[in-house]
Amino acid sequence: MKQTPIPDLIQEYSADQGSLDRLFGMEESAERFDRFRRHYENWSQRLSRIDDAKLNHADRIDLLLLENLATKDLVRLKRKRKRFETIELNIPFWSEATNLIQDLRQHKSVDPKAASLALSNIAKLAGTASKSDHEFWKGKANGERAFQEVIKLGSLLEQWHDFYCEFDPEFRWWVEKPYRQATDALEKFQKSLKPEEPEDGLPILGTPIGRKALIEELELEMIAYTPEELIAKGEKEFSWCEKQLSKVAKEIGFSDYRQAIEKIKEDHVKPGEQPNLVRDLALESIDYLKVNDLITIPPLAEETWRMGMLDAVAQKISPFFLGGERILISFPTDSMTHEEKLMSLRGNNRHFAKTTVQHELIPGHHIQQFMNARHKTYRKAFRTPFWIEGWTLYWELLLWDLGFTESHEDKIGMLFWRLHRAARVIFSLKYHLSEISADECIRILVEDVCHEPENAKSEVRRSLSGAYSELYQAAYLIGGLQVRALAKELTSEGGLSKKQFHDQMIRENQMPIECLRSLLGNHKLARPLMPTWKF
Fold first, then answer.
1. I need a surface site. Which of 155, 239, 357, 403 has the fewest CB within 10 A?
2. Whole-model pTM?
3. How many helices (H) and strands (E) does the chain have?
């Protein structure tokens, strides 16, 4: 039997996963966990039967990456399943409610009388849950997850109810009243789970995953270092940044680099003028890349980037710019307090913005996403922050080396961000090792990196909330160092120009950097994948 091309297998895996994702509306259900476990295990068995000796170099790497993806997905599923048990065991009506939803998904005929009894029991269990049940969740990351899952549960029960009630008169007769009682009780229970918002804004909720899980994640992301070794790399980079900052600060008359950072924070545009600054900085970056012939910029990529603004609530999670084809700008909004407005002005000053604009647009995320959508698109399944953020951080390192920043103030702005990236490695990994608290993470950003207090809280909130993988914040600097090491290897020893390396990398789409090194440098990778590269 002819072997399915590896790129087609990758697309099939992704499509299968998408079908299952759409089938199960709730992430936190035993049925979903069991089905996805079978999905990953079946794919792993299928891939293990492929003889990689018969594949060319690129296809072999793609096969190893797909095997690694199925393993990674299964490992993360099991970790999530274990966390789900806390929700399942501590919400008394969970199983009964999800069984109703599951019956519809499995196309079972509804028994209206039995459904009414189940709803009555859900209402009773939700309504009589003791205060101690609610206290269990208070102030915990799992409490926030449980709060969100109960909202989804209510929505799916509504879909279940609406599916039958319009065309089955017996269903309406039996179910309508107990359904209303159940939804009222669910709403009250949900409100009891809602985390209390502290006086200084949204809560910071996170759960350290521990050293074992961190090492597991690092291996799956093809990083051949322990958490402690990466922290040491972060501390080394942090120390280098402090020395450079002190040197530049002294040249403009400051004895402490913190004073110099505070000074340049006051150099911001007037309210309303930030879009003009972003436009000018974007054009400056593009012009610099062209003049120095550093990367091929497709004319359509240069033409199609757009702007948007982050509202006050979004800035509590992302106090600085976000990007891609549409750069989302942080700056004061009407709904902020006066002090919040001043912090947003200072935190998004001219000199900080110079780096964030090129990071988010060109040569950063915009051109990255533009090329991802056009070249080897099947590899987007191998999404990893070490490639996504490593590419953008590498450009920050390279542009510093090339002298993109000429003024002392711009140098301080660029070094500020580099200091910040080093701090992210240190505080995010130490947090997940349970060595420091969220408050200590904030202290590092405020006292050592010189963030505005609200911006520091937003950064930590974003880093620890669970919306990003546990390694995401460390991946900026570590991924950047990987790309820089690979660029040096292929340009000094491999004979490529900088432009050739950049064009090749961006056209290969996403994968761990060690795998990219194997692809571009023709290095052999073991099967199954295990990281070995010391960069």
1. 403
2. 0.90
3. 23, 2
